[in-house]
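Quick review question:
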């Protein structure tokens, strides 16, 4: 009984720490990825093009940034789940 409660406690700690690290990574990615896209496309000012109504730039920029953030979120979720599974065994 004590071992089970200990495992549950560790899984809660792992999931909490993993969740906090995952949230920090997603917030960091949402700040860094748009700047990275600006540096990768030096001849295009995405913000100016979006304000001008260029839908193609807006869709491309939004999809690339969204895909990066979504991918990092999936990795963070897998890390939290792995921590929970490791703690319960």
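Suggested answer, residue by residue:
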């Amino acid at each position: 009984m004590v071992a089970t409660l200990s495992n549950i406690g560790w899984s809660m700690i792992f999931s909490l720490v993993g969740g906090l690290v995952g949230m920090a990574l997603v917030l960091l990615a949402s700040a860094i990825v748009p700047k990275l896209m600006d540096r990768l496309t030096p001849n295009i000012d995405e913000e100016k093009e979006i304000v001008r109504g260029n839908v193609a730039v807006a869709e491309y920029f939004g999809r690339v940034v969204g895909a990066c953030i979504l991918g990092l979120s999936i990795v963070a979720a897998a890390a939290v789940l792995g921590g929970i599974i490791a703690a319960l065994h």
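Why it works: Helices lie at 2-40, 46-52, 55-88. The chain has three helices and no strands.
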